[in-house]
Amino acid sequence: MPSTLAVGQAYLAQIETQLADLVSRGRHGDAEALVRVLATLRPSVHTLPPELLSQIFLLASNPRTADLSWLNLKKKSSLEEEFREGSKSLRTALRLSHVCAAWRKVALQTSRMWTTVLPLQGQKIANEAALLSLVKELLARSRPISFPLSYGPTLPHSIRKHLVANISRVDALRILNSELLGAMTGTKCPYLENLEYLHIDLNMRATNPVEPYKPVPQTAAFLTARKLHSVKIEDAPLTSLFLPWAQLTNVVLSPASTSAAECSDALRQCTTATTASLVTPCWDTNAAPISPLHSLPCLEYFELLFENQVGRPEDARRENMTPTFQSLALPSLKRFEIDTMGYGWPAETHSEFLDFIRRAPHVEELVFRSELDAQAVCEIIDLTPSLLKLRFVDCPNAVADPLFEYLTHRTGTQAPVAPRLTTFLVEYSTDLSIDQTKLLAMVESRWSGTLGEEEQARLSSWKKIIFRSGERSADAPANDPWTMPFRARVTELKHLGLSIGIS
Q1: Alpha helices in 297-373 (DSSP H)
Q2: Calpha distance 237→257 (Å, rounded)
Q3: Ranges of each domain in the chain
Q4: What is the pLDDT at residue 211?
Q5: Can you tell me the distance from the alpha carbon of 319 to that of 307, in angstroms, rounded to the nearest whole number?
Q6: Residue 389 β-bridge partners
Q7: Among 32-41, 146-155, 281-290, 380-389, which is the least confidently predicted range?
Q8: In whole angstroms, how far apart are CA 454 and each of 307, 321, 406, 413?
Q9: 292: preceding bond cis by omega (within 30 degrees)
Q10: The pTM is what?
Q11: Contact assessment for residue 303 and residue 334, using Cβ atoms and an 8 Å cutoff
């Protein structure tokens, strides 16, 4: 297929031949007329109205992508990698504005095109005056539209001062350096009227357990952010941050040098939150029960991880989790993920957890990474009649025969166990000690191919069953842990339409 360039060259040659033919035959008037027609022709891209061209520029540069991912960032990439990824929009905007005078005029009139993450990291600052001039120019081009700000490496005072002077326009703020907080204290406190997203990651978890933490400057600025609804705090002490907890709808807390009581106090104030993720240390064995109960009436998704590393040195050996469960009532909870790996699952914890689940009657999905056993899971399932999805991550004690026997449906029973359960997921890194015959009995008893019409009216059939093996240790047996008859039957069920997989 001929290239676009070849087609263009052939078309140009055809026009030149036509002009030469007209001239050779003395038809100068026709030749001049053809030249005048050709002079009026313009590429279609140059005939687009400015409004449409502006929209095309926005689609091409996509200025608000990097900042909206801050709340979902994982600690895998370096600041330099994030800078390269986040500056794509700015590089595209600059290229578009340098094509021609007409495009530059449209680009400079499209304020939203310049609301990108400012180029404040990724390389050492060689010329402070040049960077300050660039920041001023970009902020002027984006005015009056709000913009995102990622504050990472230490910046010269002149640039920091200019950023704080314009910070009321920021709607998504990422702070990786406490010096910006220091520039917002006392009488320098700004009014954050547009702030909606806040991500603070000060990387303050000490590698040495006895290493003291540096104090974090305290500012009242975030209390002025009436539009703030999503907050992610990592590696920073919660007691140093003054936030409008009651108005937040999306909260992710993975602090540093913060006690279990302080974590719990912050969470309990999030009365309008719909999603929350909390990493908290355990409590002292003699911690007094928290009363009265604190209800979070809007919370639908809750992820809870116990990790003493986020606490203080005295939290290192604590294993008491019960006050966290005692303190909360989550009447709207639908999805709950809990990770207690390394801290056991004693009877007292289980008892308080059951009471906690009783106060969350609408749970549809449970995810466990814990040392609880199969009997404990059965008792939890008994309190979650709306359960749709059950997932286990490295829970060898829970994924066991008593659980399979409990979930095996027996035709004619008056009240089926977990009547809405349709998804069963297991991720394991060590061989499971299970009776595969009992597992298969559980699978087939709740499969649509086995259930009659009357039973299907009372019991939801399986939609997905997955057993996924992670990396095995070097000394683990290399042979397949699943028997050949079991694998054969799984293959048959998959062929008959059941979404089932084992590895």
Answers
A1: 322-326, 347-358
A2: 5
A3: 4-41, 397-503
A4: 47
A5: 10
A6: 365, 423
A7: 32-41
A8: 47, 43, 21, 12
A9: yes
A10: 0.84
A11: no
